UniProtKB/TrEMBL annotation:
Domain Isopropylmalate dehydrogenase-like stretches: 4-352
Enzyme class per UniProt: oxidoreductase
Subcellular location: Cytoplasm
Protein name (record): 3-isopropylmalate dehydrogenase
Organism of origin: Alicyclobacillus cycloheptanicus
Length: 363
């Protein structure tokens, strides 16, 4: 199968982890008889430096013409004081909007070999395996007006939380569909005791429930959801929520796994290319040192194989290879324990490719 993948290395450790993810995908192509064509483009701070904008038009065009997009990370400290529209993060938000990838899937899985790295007790981590489905193109991050107003009494600021019923319905419907494929339990997270948008969210979830009677629907206020994810994460199967809440809860969920460096994500739309990226961010403090953990990027590549290409066996092989290196005790610095000798980014990449070849050969 021939597939075109646009690679957006971005900033910080992004180029390091995406380089290893591309090598892994090239190995998948060899082992399974596919052809993957890769095209690189700029985004974020790298795009500002090269082309004067965080999201060049050429980048958007290349992404739209591809079958899937693999992203590293965006963000650079030297842009932190600039206007929001000129920061690296504006490139990522703009790309999500341009591709209309309205749903972000973030699986929260505790790998048994890493359980000791989690800040939670062992008994709390039993059977933790859930997915957060986050609405990605609406809410506070995209609402207008957004402005600063100088008044006689000082500065006032306005951010607007805006959702249409259609935007709410499509993300909730996807949440129901994913729950049907898993444990048939859907937790809808909102703030319906305060926000009008959340009240419409909850009403829509209830209305759609009639179409998915096999799925158990539960509502949680976002503050309670944050507490429950720490108290008893094993109770969840699929969590669906709006943009801001999903951003915060998914990072909280990442930490219970032991390292945010292990968390992949997939951003999906209504038919265009999916966007796949690790959640860890650009980590500028370790950029260029060759010690970044590429496993989240590898798991994001596995999600690409599964969701965009329908290559289920290939995705399983990648995930099995990652699980095997962890079972073998191999660690990068962020997940290393006392007595471990951390691998470099490149060494971990080679280790996973070796396990992938062995996994395929054994079948």
């Amino acid at each position: 199968m021939n597939k075109h993948i646009t690679v957006l290395p971005g900033d910080g450790i992004g180029p390091e982890v995406t380089a290893e993810a591309q090598k892994l995908l090239e190995e998948v192509a060899v082992q399974f008889g596919h052809t993957f064509e890769f095209t690189a483009a700029h985004i974020g701070g790298a795009a500002i430096d090269a082309e004067g904008t965080p999201l060049p038009e050429q980048t958007v065009a290349r992404c739209k013409a591809s079958d899937a997009v693999l992203l590293g990370a965006v963000g650079a400290p030297k842009y932190d004081r600039g206007p929001a529209s000129g920061r690296p993060e504006a490139g990522l938000l703009g790309l999500r909007k341009a591709l209309d990838v309205f749903a972000n899937l973030r699986p929260i899985t505790v790998f048994p070999p890493l359980a000791a790295a989690s800040p939670l007790k062992d008994e709390v981590l039993t059977n933790v395996d859930f997915v957060i489905v986050r609405e990605l193109t609406g809410g506070l991050y995209f609402g207008t007006p957004r402005e600063r107003i100088q008044t006689d009494h000082g500065l006032e600021v306005v951010d607007t939380l805006r959702y249409s019923e259609q935007e709410i319905e499509r993300i909730l419907r996807l949440g129901y569909q994913i729950a049907q494929q898993r444990g048939k339990r859907l937790t809808s997270v909102d703030k319906a005791n305060v926000l009008e948008s959340s009240r419409v969210w909850r009403e829509t979830a209830e209305r759609l429930h009639a179409e998915y009677p096999d799925v158990e629907l539960n509502h949680l206020l976002v503050d309670n959801a944050a507490m429950q994810i720490v108290k008893d994460p094993g109770q969840f199967d699929v969590i669906v929520t709006e943009n801001l809440f999903g951003d915060i809860l998914s990072d909280e969920g990442a930490m219970i796994t032991g390292s945010i460096g292990m968390l992949p994500s997939a951003s999906l739309g209504a038919g265009g290319p999916g966007l796949y990226e690790p959640v860890h961010g650009s980590a500028p403090d370790i950029a260029g040192k060759g010690i970044a953990n590429p496993l989240a990027s590898f798991l994001s590549a596995a999600m690409m194989l599964r969701h965009s290409f329908g290559m289920f066996a290939e995705a399983d092989a990648v995930e099995q290879a990652v699980q095997q290196v962890l079972a073998d005790g191999l660690r990068t610095a962020d997940i290393a324990g006392p007595g471990d000798t951390p691998l470099s980014t490149a060494e971990m990449g080679e280790a996973v490719r070796t396990r992938l070849r062995a996994t395929v050969a054994a079948k």
